[in-house]
Structures are given as C-alpha cells and as structure tokens.
Sequence to fold (715 residues):
Amino acid sequence: MALKTDCPLPTLDFDVITLGHGSGGLLTHKLLETGVFDLLKNEHLDAQHDGAFLELEGKTAFSTDSFVISPIIFPGGNIGELAVNGTVNDLAMCGAVPQYLSLGFIIEEGLTMAEFWEVLVGVKYAAERAGVQVVTGDTKVVERGKGDKLFINTTGIGKVHAKANIAVNRIKEGDKIIVSGELATHGIAIMSVREGLEFETDIRSDTQNLNHVVIDLIERFGDDIHVLRDPTRGGVATVLKEMATQSALGMTLDHNSIPVNDGVEGACEMLGLDPLYVANEGLFIAVVDASREAEFLAKLRETEEGSNAACIGTVTSQHPGQVLMTSAIGGRRVLNMLPGEQLPRIC
Amino acid sequence: MKFLSEYRDPELVKDYLEEIKNTVTQPWTIMEVCGGQTHSLVKNGLLNLLPDEITMVHGPGCPVCVTPLNLIDKAVHLALDKGVILCSFGDMLRVPGSEKSLLQAKAEGGDIRILYSPLEAVKIAEENPDKQVVFFAVGFETTAPANALSVLHAHRKGLNNYSILASHVLVPPAISAVMADEDNVIQGFLAAGHVCTIMGIEEYYPIVEEHKIPIVVTGFEPVDLLQGILMVVKQLEAGVHKLENQYSRMVEPEGNPEAIKVIRSVFDIHDREWRGIGNIPESGYEVKPELAQFDANIKFAVDITAAEESKECIAGDVLRGIKKPHQCPQFGKKCTPSTPLGAPMVSSEGACAAYYHFSNANLTEELV
Fold:
C-alpha cells in the first residue's frame, strides 16, 4: 500500500480503543479529530454536520453492504479497502458512477489504534482510487466479546450512466458470459490466514474497485451489456444460478475456459473447496450480446483489472433455470447455489 | 497442476472410456467404496460417460455419513452443556443430530471450531489450560494417524485438558458387511486409495478369496477411476477375482509402517455402530484403556441413548448400495443440503449430496 508511508499513525495519548471512544463525548472527538477527518478530508465531511447535503440529478443508484471479515487485515488488503471497494463495485454493477459513501464503524473495545489506523488508510486509499468521497459516518464501540474487532458498513450513491441498461430480464438466448479475471483469490487468501487453517501461500485478495473499467465498458458497449454482477459471497456459481433462475433461461459453462490461478487451484484441491463457490472481491461477471463478445473481451483484457478475463459460457433456452457445466474431460454437471457456508471436507 | 493434470487428461479419459466400452459385454455392478471417489465421479460427470452396462454403486466410505447419531448428540452436549471447546473437521458441522447439528449448537453459543488438523486442537488445549478441548476424531484409516498423533502429542506435553471423541471406522469390515448382506448386488469393488496409502493392501486378499470378488485399489482422479473400473471389468469379463493396485504411485503393498505404528499405539480395534447400516464387528478404532484420559467417551461419561433416525430417510439403503440417492422420494424435495434428513446429504462425499450438488432432481435421470 503505497500511501501507508505517507500517512503515519499520529502521536496519541492512547493506543487502544476503549468504550469511551464511542461515547460521543470528548474521547470520540479525540479519536475522530486525530485521524478520521484529516485522512478523509472533503468539503462535506469538513462541515461536521449530522448529515451531508448532496445535489443529485437523474437516475441514481443506492447500495449498502456490511463487512464483518476476520482477520481484518489480510494478504492483499484490509477491511477498510474491502468496505469501500464492496459498495463501489455494487454501484458499478448497477451501471452507476459511484460518488458518495457513508462509513459506519462498529469497533470492539481493545482494537489497537495501529490496526484502526491501517484500516483508515485503507479506506482513504480505496476511496481515492475509486474517486468517491466519504461524506458522512458514524463510530460506535461495543464491549469486548460483542464484536469481532471491527465491523464496517458502507452505503453508497452513484449516478447511473446514460448508456447503462442493466437488468436480469435483458439476458437472452445466445448471450455470452464473461468473467473479468481469475476466480476465488479473495476467499483463498482469507482462508490462508484464518486461525486453525493457516497455510503458506503468496495468494493475495483480489479486492479492488471495478468502477473505472466498468464505466469505460458501458461507455463503449452501452446496452449490449445486459447484466453485470460481482460474485462475492457464494462465488461465481451461486450468482450464475441466481441469474438463470431469475431469467428462466439456462446457462452452459465450459470448465476448461474458467480462469483459476494455479496456486488457488492447488489450495482448493488441498482444502476440498470448489473455486466456483469461493468468494471474490475484485471480479465481475458480464452477460453481453454475442455479437460484441470478441470486442468486449479484447477491450477488457487491455485493462489491469481484466487482463485475465475470459468467456466461460453461453446463455441457452435449453434447461431453463439450470446452469450446466461441461467438465474438463467432457462430462457434465449441474451447478447449484451454495447451501450455507462451504465447509472443508475431512479427507 | 503437476501430478494432477496428467490424471485429468481428456485424451487419456477418452482412451480409457473407449477401452471400457470395448471390453464390456454384459451388465456389471461395481461399488466405489470411498466418498471421495463418489465425489470425483459425479463432479467430473463420469457417470454419464460410462457405458450403460456399467452401474456404479456408491459405498459407505463417507465418514461423516456413518458417524452414529448419538455421537453427534454427544458432541453437541459437550459443546453446549459442558463448556468444552469442541474442535471438528468442517463437514461434520452440518450433519443433523437427533435435535440439532453442531452448526446449530455453535449458533446457540457452543465454542465449536473448524480445524484441518487435530494437532491444531492440541495447540488450542495448550493455549486454554482452564478449558477442556475435545477433538471430534471422525474418519476412516486415512485420518487415524493424525488423530492418534494428537493424543501422543498431548500425552508427551502432559496435557490433562485434551481428549478425542473417536468415531473411527475401517474399510475392510465394511466391504465384508456389504458382501454379507442378503440383498447384495455388488460384483466388484474399487477400494479406497488413500486408506490403502496408510494401511497397505494385505488385508484385502482374504476378502477377495472369501467372496470371490475383484477388488482394485483405486485413486481419485478421472483417469485413476476409469483405469480402476477397467481393471475390475477385465477381471469380471474374464471370470477371475484378484486384488490389484491401480494407485501404485501412492500405495505401497505394506502401506505406511510408521503411520500404522502410531495408530496401533493409540487405538484398539472394536465393534462399531455405522449410521444407517448398523453394528459391524471389529470395524472401528477406540482409544486404548491405558490412554483413557484422552478418550472423551470415558472422560465425559454422558449416557446419550441412541435416538431414532428420520423414517423418511433411506440413507441405510443408499450406503449399502441398494438404492440410488435420486430413488428416494424426499431427494431434492424435503431433503436438500440445507435441510438434510440424513447424513449422506451433508458432506460433499455423501452420495446424496454429490448427486444433489452436481446433478439435479429434474436432470438426474438424464445425467447419471
């Protein structure tokens, strides 16, 4: 994180966050004044009012998400970056240019200021990259044992791009299903550092903002992009099954064309997990008109976020509501939604 | 991926399928014993590539599926009522007990942790000297060495707050039980490769002789499975019965002597109850009496009476290979992985879950 060195932890007379920091009184002010406002500085936040005054026009997208990840700092990012990118990406999937975010912290007492600062720097860094402003926020502290270090909620507003026309009912037979990159890197990166499951790997979370690349694609391909989705929890398979059910169309996937990094595939083999069901945080699925497939892929692959993009399947009127995958060796299987958490197998 | 992609090579798969088709002249029913093999057959779509003459029956080799109901109830009880830190492999958590699963017990406040290695549980015991830590030691011979090793480690470290709730089952007695069943239809077996990596292959010779049945020790990748099936079919067509080892890149005839030594230093062989199947003589491991302080069954002497299974669940027939999962009236309807009536719908190694995940109620007939 390049910015981290530019934003050293300020000198404070406390190094651990306590219940008092969420009281709304002096300690809360101290916590916010020393860090948050300076770091996220903008005209709306600087006003320090109960809320922000925003001028909105046209069709607006509005989205919220809560982040409860453990551990809060992980290979490739932290919960702060994740909280910004998550909501930014949800807005982008609506075809919107993300503009404003709210930021709500629920802190478990005992969180060190050093960790909180790292998360804040993550928020700043991610917001700058995405070009969004944090315009309002909230901080609460709960007793030890009543949280898991830090929970964050972000809510975002963005203006829908004039050329965007994204809706599940626009999916039609023949459409191509494109993923923007390699699957499952976020989920596996988190698992590699989770207590009890640690294993050595250089896999890093793919958390990143997708708004710039998505808006560029919308600008170019307009309503030939029928649907955009970011397959976070539940993974790619769950999202595709959801779309198949909602659109009452079928989907046929080709296992050979699904991009998975070697290390991730190895970890999945070892842990007994299926990359199609593992979470992603910097990946999107686009369902596009077949006539634009090649051009769309070429354009996407020119970008950093989409360099590993691939077309993984086709929409069909056969087997409505079902996602079928041809396995690497030519057999077929059905993909269903993930039932609850994906649990590692015994052997 | 090296050492994996070779065994998933589409060309080789095609060659083996072709050879199986050319070899088979009549219908044969073959059981793959291990749940990992079931998982791979269904996940790779192999079942619908095999010729119609060959029927694969999915055996009882899913440790989660055969763990008795009262042991799950006991684990739930330890976590909820005894303040124990209960550690378990992941897929044990969703298996329904008579009232609740470990996942539900976790939601109710039980300290239940998912681990990949029992040695992690020993570490947790060291870090929490004021708490009792129990590892739910489930599995076939494959997981037995690591589970036994955790007891040896705890013993060496002088820990008095670590024990295991053992539910260890053994493959050879299960094969014998399947063969002894009066409804048995199985004509050949793919034995579980990983189990033999530990135990070797010697103990299968007497079974081959007694039941005059081909057994081929087989791996888990598509090419392994097809080669194993071909080896069984060749024997069946030739009217011979032998023990063969397809998985020789992993399995030595004598197994892994070090691992066997560790197992024998901690466990004794006992009769064991298999969920859905019943009692099988000398089919499981229990902690030796001299290590009783590491046996959660003795340490927490709770008497949990065996609860009744759901009457709608045909798991017993599925585990013995008498019925296929989709022949159950509740398959994909009342019984799904999120609302399982029986254990085979839980673990992805369970035949019902494998069918559910990789096929679908409406498409099963077509795909399987």
Observations:
- The two ends of chain B are 28 Å apart (CA to CA).
- Chain B is about 40% helix and 20% strand.
- The first helix of chain B runs from residue 10 to 23.
- Chain B touches chain A through 53 residues (CB under 8 Å).
